[in-house]
Amino acid sequence: MALRVFGLGLPKSGTSTLQDAFLRSGMKSLHWYTKTVEKFAGNSMYHRWYRGENIMADFPGFEAVTQPDLITTTTSFWPQMDPAMLREVARQNPDVKFILNLRDPVAIANSMEKWGNFMERLHKVGAPGMPPRCATTKKRVIRWIEGHYANTMELFEGKDNFLSYDIEDKDANIRIGEFIGQPLEWWGHSNKTRENGETRGVVY
Question: What domains, with CATH codes, occur in the chain?
């Protein structure tokens, strides 16, 4: 089965909600890691791509990827921020739909700050648009998030295989369902960060 949906959102921007919505609607969807094959999306996709292989070869049957990044204290993989990788996703999956979930950058940065050691990892290993040792302040992280949104909007400008939505939109689930051609059976708020930095649902 070819990949139907590829998520372009960042951590703490509503990707877990999108993942839960897809799963509860009967879709086989991947959110950064799957116990089925014990592999991380970001790591696997890049290694397959560099070998000239199917980037989803380690995830047979998956219809969607809602968050592909992987960031640890030693590695950093961000397919959703890499134009070359996104072109390859589209080349290998001509009918794929790209979805960017938007959230206020300040709110994302606040959640990231509370979310375990994420800010420490980002500062140490970096990400596209955020070189290592540069995430010294929340203001810089906010600018990094804003840059991702601007770059993505420009990359997909005028393309009918792209949808962006604000996670606060009351009709977001309807718009997403219409866009992917499958109604969403559930919509809500997953993986909420608590004040102590713990989360509900899937975390890494």
Answer: 5-180 (3.40.50.300)
Tokens 């606040």 map to which residue? 110
Per-residue pLDDT reduced to its tens digit, 109-146? 999 999 999 999 999 999 999 999 999 999 999 999 99
Higher pLDDT, 163 or 201: 163
Run of H or E residues at 121? helix 118-125
Q: Is a pLDDT exceeding 60 seen at residue 198?
A: no
End-to-end CA distance of the chain: 27
Per DSSP, the three-state class of 77 is strand
Cα 116 to Cα 43, 140, 177, distances in angstroms: 21, 19, 32
CA distance 196 to 114: 7
